[in-house]
Amino acid sequence: MSVNNNEILYIYDAKLTNPNGDPDEENRPRMDYEREINLVSDLRLKRYIRDYLMLKGYDIFVRLVDDKPVTADKRVKDLEDSSNEWILENWIDVRMFGATMTVQKDTKTFIGPIQFNWGYSLNKVELLEASITSHFSSSETFAQGTIGKDFRVKYSLIAFSGVVSGHRAEKTKLKEDDLYLLDEALKHAIPNLVTRSKIGQYPRIYMRVEYVDKETILGDFRDYIELKTTTDSIRDINECSLEMVKLVNLLNENKNKIKNVYYFVDERLELNINGEKVTFEEAFKELPLKKVD
């Protein structure tokens, strides 16, 4: 069965952690300082997905080999068969996100059908800066440990928008099962792939709206939700809620274009319709819903 267009809303939060360090800013969390908004690149999100796929036993193209980074050229040369058909059949991340790989003088380019915008926080974010001391000295002549900086967000509720192109899916041979794996990864990857700088992040809501054709695009779902808070400076998911009425109306008005809505919602996230608390199932009761396990 061929893949049609899909649109995605994905929101997770980050508490006393660094969602996406900027190497040009001493690894501080990426920020839009003028608006006090935390930013996370699409590459960071794709990295979570790729790492989860590897955890599940899938081979991928963008990875380390023997714990060492290798060039795209080396990654392909190491294989006996690097035909387009072999690549698309064996590397799920190429089917999902595409890739550009150079083999001698030949450049293979696959445009990925699954793309995400940069994520941004729905709330204003404050940064926490702390000094950290290593127990190891910087050299044999200095017995004292080195001192560095540790930058984290106090709290950030980060929203991503994504699109699956049905036409591009044909080119990369994206499978419906690949999208089920994407759903699974976006539910489980972040909490299962924690590091010291990433612990404290949890998925809160995900919805993938599958359309009936390869033409429909309704727009960035983030434009149709509104964060409501109980304080000017939130520190926990319990201090905010999401007003969903505009998104519900958008999807209901276009329900004839929608085949399925795949979703999960964390029970701690409060959803509202015109200020009244509702469940996801109540909010989108007019649509065909399929819960992601």
Automatic annotation (TrEMBL):
Coiled-coil annotated residue ranges, if any: none
Pfam family name, one: Cas_Cas7
Superkingdom classification of source: Bacteria
InterPro entries membership: Cas7_Csh2/Csh2, CRISPR-assoc_prot_Cas7/Csh2
GO biological process: maintenance of CRISPR repeat elements
Protein name: CRISPR-associated protein, Csh2 family
